[in-house]
């Protein structure tokens, strides 16, 4: 990856001062200096205060806040980098939808990215800010020098001294100052570009997802693509069965029905055979319909999750109470994930738990679809033992959801499924 | 003799249905393969009854059902029989609870039913005559729910039988024949059912609709 500003500088070093780049660099550096100095002040107060009161509990809390302060600062910096970079850096943090504040904090403190971000924050507050002050001074001095003829003219008859002890007599004589100022500005253009590039590289190094992180992101994406492909394939199979075998069987049973109609009233040995053939066609249709529904539930596509879940509940051998308070339509990936998860959960509960009843509860909270499945069975479900629960967890992981199983021996078994709706 | 407009995208089945209907003396004025053609055919033919598949081109979702609802909004009281591959009650309630006026016959049958030729033709005639007919399989699934807190548990086996036939769109007389009991006892059973389910026993579609809505535990008329 190249640094955009360095790239521009390398391509056309002489034209560089006359592009928008110097202004962008200056905006980046000056805003960075102001923010960095504020950061320095806040961190200094927090650290001194935290260490000073660390014998009290509050001091440790303050130091903990300092430890994670890099996260918001880095988020801000990733945005600010857009002044001089075409693309935003990806966040190195894993998504934690629906997690509580304590588990969020624990996870963040375990992530290396958090500590790299803290490092960047300290670097920014001290080194970049100091360099920023130097640069600001250079820029400010140069601008003043450029303007000396005007200043001399405006302040006359008072004397102006550029070099101590030597008064500048008039605006024309001050043109030497202007030349020096322009030279300074040119220096500020190139120094600003170098400084900006250095900061961008540092930010890249410390703030973006590391290679292994990027690979995980790509892996997740490819798994999501695979899931989509499976979904499309299921859809295609469902459609082929619906348009092909199902229609053929219906037509067959209709033909058999017509034959029966023709033979009505006749005492032919073919009559009971026809009835049997019709029964068999009927059974084949029933089985095919169940199969098709398991492959791709059309009611889910047409009517959404609440209708499809009501249907599942009706067919379940053990009574199910459903309490869904969700919008009729959710994103398709959420709908299918929730549906297949619930299918598996109901099958497990009905087959293995010995439960007498199952309750299903669904809500959307803070952009996360939360599904609770509770049964009053004997408990002891082990996610590691059965392929079913493991498969559910895998499937959920792809859409950045998660599965929490609580199943103490003696029951009850509670499944909590979370799927972010933005997935 | 009924004048029928038929919409079914599977060619084999469409041809079979045309043959079946003409064989028993009905006239298929148009046999079409998608929802748009269906609307045009109904406007042109003014049929006695429409038979349509739920799923049709161009989207292969529920175009046929939606077209049927649109048609009923434009042609007041047009009897429609919907053929479906889905047992899911959501489709039946979509048909019955649509914004269209509740008058005029309505039917929701599984496609398997066309194999039971006599039963299918009977259902078609009852729909054309203004009755509401729901497929027995759909009713069976609805009745199978055993949630203990549902008032359905309070029905006797005989009352359940009567309820299922009621949902199939049979009137008291036909129910009495089917169960070989007197019409008076059917009336008595109905009274008990409506009382136990707390359903308003109004006539026609509303009666079936109320029962369906109750079984699904929701208010479809709202």
From TrEMBL, chain A:
Keywords: ATP-binding, Kinase, Membrane, Nucleotide-binding, Phosphoprotein, Transferase, Transmembrane, Transmembrane helix, Two-component regulatory system. The keyword Ubl conjugation does not apply. GO terms for molecular function: kinase activity. It catalyses: ATP + protein L-histidine = ADP + protein N-phospho-L-histidine. It holds the Pfam family Sensor. Residues 28-207 form the Putative sensor domain. It is an enzyme of class 2 (transferase). Its EC number is 2.7.13.3. It comes from the Bacteria. The chain crosses the membrane at residues 25-49, 55-76, 122-155, 175-195. Residues 233-300 form the Signal transduction histidine kinase subgroup 3 dimerisation and phosphoacceptor domain. This is histidine kinase. It comes from Actinocorallia aurantiaca.
TrEMBL record, chain B:
The modification 4-aspartylphosphate is found at residue 53. The keyword DNA-binding applies. PROSITE patterns: HTH_LUXR_1, HTH_LUXR_2, RESPONSE_REGULATORY. Pfam families: GerE (PF00196), Response_reg (PF00072). SUPFAM superfamilies: CheY-like. Residues 3-126 form the Response regulatory domain. Keywords: DNA-binding, Phosphoprotein, Transcription, Transcription regulation. Residues 148-217 form the HTH luxR-type domain. InterPro entries: CheY-like_superfamily, NreC/VraR/RcsB-like_REC, Sig_transdc_resp-reg_receiver, Tscrpt_reg_LuxR_C, WalR-like, WH-like_DNA-bd_sf. Coiled coil: none annotated. Gene3D superfamilies: 3.40.50.2300, Winged helix-like DNA-binding domain superfamily/Winged helix DNA-binding domain. It comes from the Bacteria. This is Response regulator transcription factor. It comes from Actinocorallia aurantiaca.
